Amino acid sequence: MTVIHQDPQGLVQAEPAGTLDDTQTVLRLEGVDKRYPGVHALKNVSLDVRRGEVHALVGENGAGKSTLVGVAAGAVLPEQGSVQICGASTDSPTPQWSREQGLAIVYQEPALLPHLTVAENMRLGMPKALRPAVRDQDRWAEGILEGWKNVASIDPRSLVGSLKPDARFVVEIARAMAEDPKVIVLDEPTEHLLPAAVEELFHLIDAVVRRGGAVVYISHKINEVKKIANTISVLRDGALEGTFPAADMSEQDIVDLVVGHQKSREAARTTTLDPAAPVQLKINELSGHGFSHLNLEVRKGEIVGFAGIEGQGQRDALRALAGLSRTKGSVTINGGDVRLGSTTTAMRDGIVYLPHDRHNEGIFSRLSLRENASIGSIAQFAKAGAVSSRQEQKTVIQQFAALRVKAPSAEVDIDTLSGGNQQKVVLSRVLLGGSPVLLADEPTQGVDVGARGEIYQILRTAAAGGASIIVLSSSAAELEELCDRVIVFSRGQAAKELTGEEVSERRITEAALTASQHRAVSTEASRPEKKWKRQLAENDLMPGGVLLVATIVLGIVASSQSSFYLTPRNFGLVLPLVAILAFFAIAQQLVMMVGAIDLSVGPLAGFLVVLGSFVLSEFRSPVGIAIGILIVTLAAVAVGVINWFLTTIVKITPLIATLVTFTALQGFAYLLRPLPGGRMDPNFTDMVTSSFGFLPWMLAGAIAVALGLEVTLHKSLFGVRLRAVGSNPATAKKVGVKSNLVVLAAYVGCSVLVVPASLLLMAQAGTGNASIGDSYTLASIGAVVLGGASIFGGRGSFLGAIMGAILVIQANTVVQFLGLQMYWQQWFIGGLTLAAAAFYSKTRSLSERM
């Protein structure tokens, strides 16, 4: 904590002081210390935030700002220190605790789950007392988003993954504001927002302050901080430099404290461009989605800026040049034609791209800095297919040194770095390729003032080395600082070119506004309505409908070949097989919802059949049968717990963990029954195989279970949490989901759902057979994939899984009726699975572009 005074020279300084009035303090962080491997992220930081103030937190990337607010929000657990929110205090904060005490947070990267709808995301992140009923969530979310309709039209029923970055931030901010928080933390909230949305956000911040709330505002944009902050705290290298009244601080004072030394304002723009430099990049009549008729020549060593009001086609043009969309027209580099429409061919022909969406398109999460930097140019370090690790590491380290990447080593995970250093690593990858053309989309987005200047110098150095560079930036000041020329876009076309003295912040802004004043219809608005196509692609029941059609077609083919197909006797033989695979598919779908695959379901069934041959053997009373089924169920629960323990606590990859269980279960089953033996109780067998006409009761039960789970998946809080964990476990944790318990429920539920399938197999075999379930592991995975499930989690349908099971059995049956060899069954199912996976993946990826 600090008091503020002026020294005789007029410089603002800070020094320790006594305790602030606790009744005015809504957030207190006391003695917070946090370390990561090789990094002391926070060094005994104490901070007070008072009612009715906007408290800005500034500092370079890696200074500890996001870590500090992460501690306050319960997303980061400190080694020492405490958090106090409105009088309640703890040294072990959790997201649930912080939220319930009245703190809401908007993270630098929105804590939203891509496979959940907007309304589901908003409801999941709300405190329990404010959480609406599931049936009301769409209407509730629509009411909250109504205040943003002038800046973003967002359907609460849309999947978050289909939204553009600015719309995702609107959803996150709207959700946080809807919590009616006593203190709200905004971590770089304006980075992806359009100007109108920024103004709306500032109005909302003002409303929070006027009603007595508090706002913690993190930003690298000093002008924003000066505009709205009452108080400013500066962090540097994990330590608090001081807390100051914003009115007493000039922008230069803030910059000096942030970088730790007196830093003059950016020098006036200079250029080293040779007027006689040859044309290196030539674009002729290039047209694509969002833009048309682009003609441009860029000389060797020249930096050209793309400007304009957001959505005028400049980003579409830049991404098209990078090969990320289809185009018409021609592009040449040093006289050689460039094949567009593919990033691979664009890179091969000399174009590299620095994306603006760093987290989704720039970095390779969980890979090291070295791997992230070298992956685009790995071929230059290889001879005869073998990579020279020494040369790769040496080159990457040299590049990191040149770009001043701050990290313990080149081998640390890139996720541990600050945003600015991550951006430098991505820039390293771009520069290592040595390509003649560099496309930079918002190169300093989310970067602090110190790193911003370094990136400017990196780009200037690349241009001086002969690269032709196109920079897209929403900051006119940035374009003035960097560019030799600026192209202003309007209505999808290059409307104005600024050169020489015209390249100024004022002229760029003026040109963008003037060019857009008479816009009649936006490119986006002129696109045909595709909402129904997106909704169809996003609907997890759509694959099940496709499988139903395929099943009917196969049935018509089979019935045309044999009159026996449509008989009760045939259905009486086939439907029990459907019931068995249906339960396996439902079980597999449950665990795949959390992003795992359970390879042990088949051997588990074999083990349970063997166990049943002992506990459900002949001459059992009804009570004895019930006890036997209970024992089998408890054994299944134990296996589910073991799988959860191996994957979640021991942290073994699910495929490896369940493969271990697979082998162990097979071993135990053969130990108990080396050869098939024992005899099941006839009363038990009759009970399990009973039917209504030719419809087995167990199949009706499987359909009922699937319906119940389908409703649970979309209409209950547990179902939303299940999909949330599968969608993104880290984000789910940030919004308060207890991921470990959700995964435990998935694994145990999967094993329990194998029990009815095992009971059917017991009745089918009549004896204990250790190998009877082995073939169902792959069959269950195939059925679930056919049903539209994502192997990465978060997407899928239990009804789709049953339709997948029906199609698998139907295909096997039709192959027999057509008189084909048995291997055709495997080929047919394998081909269908591959086709289905490719079709669903393509459909969903296209839906995100609609």
Question: Layout of SSEs?
Answer:
Layout: E1 2-6, E2 12-16, E3 25-36, E4 39-50, E5 54-58, H1 65-73, E6 80-85, E7 88-90, H2 95-101, E8 103-106, H3 118-124, H4 137-145, H5 165-178, E9 183-187, H6 195-210, E10 214-218, H7 222-228, E11 231-236, E12 239-245, H8 251-259, E13 279-288, E14 291-299, E15 303-307, H9 314-321, E16 327-333, E17 336-337, H10 343-348, E18 351-354, H11 358-362, H12 369-374, E19 382-383, E20 386-387, H13 389-403, H14 419-432, E21 437-441, H15 449-464, E22 468-472, H16 476-482, E23 485-490, E24 493-499, H17 505-516, H18 531-538, H19 542-561, H20 568-592, H21 601-615, H22 622-649, H23 654-672, H24 682-689, E25 691-692, E26 695-696, H25 697-715, H26 717-727, H27 729-734, H28 739-765, H29 776-786, H30 798-817, H31 823-847
Parallel strand pairs: 5-10, 5-11, 8-9, 9-10, 15-22, 15-23, 18-21, 21-22
Antiparallel strand pairs: 1-2, 3-4, 3-6, 6-7, 11-12, 13-14, 13-16, 16-17, 19-20, 23-24, 25-26
Helix pairs in contact: 3-4, 13-14, 14-15, 16-17, 18-31, 19-30, 20-25, 20-28, 20-29, 20-30, 21-22, 21-23, 21-28, 22-23, 22-28, 24-28, 25-26, 25-30, 26-28, 29-30, 29-31, 30-31
Tell me the strand order in the biggest sheet. Answer: 8-9-10-5-11-12
**Over all CA atoms, what is the radius of gyration?**
31 Å
Assembly type of the shown chains?
single chain
Give the termini separation: 51 Å
Structural class: alpha/beta
Q: Which runs of at least 5 residues are low in confidence (pLDDT < 50)?
A: 1-20, 262-268, 516-529
- 3D shape: globular
Residues in helix, %: 40-55%
